[in-house]
């Protein structure tokens, strides 16, 4: 029970319930773990400033793994510990391929700022699963007239994301795009998305970088997730825990399964392994 030194967790579908809330019970258990000296680390596909304010303002959050591991961040010192980005020339090739696919739209993140084609921005609500996701995209993606130029001028692309409500198409993209772009990582965290990072960028690699930085052994890390973009982290951690609401792949590889995000699954898992 005293072996856990760091707890990493996904946000949507994991730490946060289906209403995107941090329940009082889970907040209390996180505080108790932090009081024991355990590092509490969000590991998310989101940009840091898109993480809910009530999470960012928790006093015990010292580090974060953002954009699926593209950035490992020292929060208190505003210092980048590690970064893993898609080269602009590859991002341009992907954008040209994506432009030939019907029934999708896509965006990109560079230097912690989101960008999207202006025509995609205008029709984005029709591709989103709910009002929450619509607001995330519209509030945090800047529409640009020349998307190719924006990619070419970047130092590196932290993440790209495809949106489609066509489940057959989404499944096909998750299987076919890795063959076309083997140096990129393809995963999903929501029923309508495909998330694209550099092959070196995933939550598991981000977790390893942070563990090295803090001189913590992977065997002393507890991690929670629910989506395929959490799989590398679940595999890397000493104890990888899948939420009951996880995708099948994660449930197969996890060391343990906890209750779902609407029944304080993270809190239950921390109680089981840390107290």
Report on the structure:
This protein is of the alpha/beta class and 275 residues long. The chain has helices at residues 24-35, 53-56, 88-98, 118-123, 131-140, 147-152, 167-180, 203-214, 231-236, 248-253, 265-274, and strands at 6-9, 39-42, 63-66, 71-74, 79-83, 105-110, 113-117, 141-144, 159-163, 184-187, 193-198, 221-225, 239-243, 256-258. It is globular and about 55 Å long. The protein is built from eleven helices and 14 strands. The longest helix is centred in the middle third of the chain and has 14 residues, at 167-180. The protein starts with 5 loop residues before the first strand and ends with a helix. Helix 9 (231-236) links the parallel strand 12 (221-225) and strand 13 (239-243). The mean pLDDT is 97. The strands form three sheets. It has a six-stranded mixed sheet with strand order 8-7-6-9-11-10. It has a five-stranded parallel sheet with strand order 2-1-12-13-14. Strands 3-4-5 form a three-stranded antiparallel sheet, with helices on one face. It folds into two domains: 6-83 and 201-274, 3-Layer(aba) Sandwich (Rossmann fold), CATH 3.40.50; 88-198, Hypothetical Protein, Haloacid Dehalogenase-like Hydrolase, Chain: A, domain 2 (2-Layer Sandwich), CATH 3.30.1240. Helix 1 (24-35) packs parallel to helix 11.
